[in-house]
UniProtKB/TrEMBL annotation:
A GO MF term: acyltransferase activity, transferring groups other than amino-acyl groups
One Pfam family hit: Acetyltransf_7
Organism the protein comes from: Oidiodendron maius (strain Zn)
Name of the protein: N-acetyltransferase domain-containing protein
PROSITE patterns cross-referenced by the UniProt entry: GNAT
Length: 225
């Protein structure tokens, strides 16, 4: 570990299975995920790898970056990922209704997915004020590489894109992730708490706190001239 460096690089199609495994490992003990999605099987990991980077919302452009730990021999091991979606104002339409226009087949608890994930997407869109925005879909770091600044590097890389374009950034933070995002200039827009024990499969579990955050657009070079 000491003799390795960590670089943030664009993810390649051949990286997707490794990225899926890192994502599942990072959230293995996340109670919200376990109730909404269920505990993943090997088939679930392969399926996730096949759908990574695929847009599920009209007007969405997805970009994935990886954090690679590179040893002295140049051998690469993926230890983190960030998935970003860029939206153009007016292009994003989130369907109203019980399922919000989603195919919810395969979710362990579709109701929790709608109340948590889809509700969060709606609030992030509202926080944008109908202007262009970059959304952080997921930020995941392998347990073996945590507390090494990997998450901060992945986050900073995406924020650079937003700053160069002069657009705002939005995300839904967990209680654990909120301090990291605040250090990078994100402000709370709205928060909501879900009682997992109210949902099928969540019996005996606690509360899941979700914080919708927005980082205002930085001025572009042309605006400063």
């Amino acid at each position: 570990m000491v003799s390795s460096t960590i670089k943030v690089l664009p993810a390649q199609p051949s990286d997707m299975e490794a990225l899926a495994r890192v994502e599942f490992a990072a959230f293995e003990n996340n109670e919200f995920g376990l109730v909404a999605f269920g505990r993943p099987s090997e088939a679930d990991i392969i399926q996730r790898a096949q759908t990574m980077g695929v847009s599920h919302i009209p007007g969405e452009v997805v970009r994935i970056t990886k954090a690679a730990m590179i040893d002295l021999d140049g051998k690469e091991e993926i230890v983190g990922l960030a998935s970003w979606s860029r939206f153009t104002a007016g292009d994003v339409v989130i369907t109203e209704g019980k399922d919000k226009g989603r195919n919810l087949t395969g979710f362990a608890c579709p109701e929790l997915f709608v109340d948590g994930i889809v509700r969060g997407e709606e609030l992030m869109k509202l926080s944008s004020g109908e202007k262009d925005y970059l959304k952080l879909n997921v930020l995941a770091v392998s347990p073996k590489a945590q507390r090494r600044g990997v998450g901060s590097k992945l986050l900073s890389d995406g924020l650079q894109e937003a700053d160069e374009a002069g657009i705002q950034t939005v995300l839904a933070a967990s209680e654990d992730g909120e301090p990291l995002y605040k250090r990078h200039g994100f402000l709370e827009y709205e928060k909501f708490i879900l009682n997992l024990s109210d949902y099928r499969g969540g019996e005996g579990k606690g509360f899941s706190r979700h914080v919708i955050m927005n980082r205002p657009a930085r001025a572009t070079l042309s605006e400063l001239e």
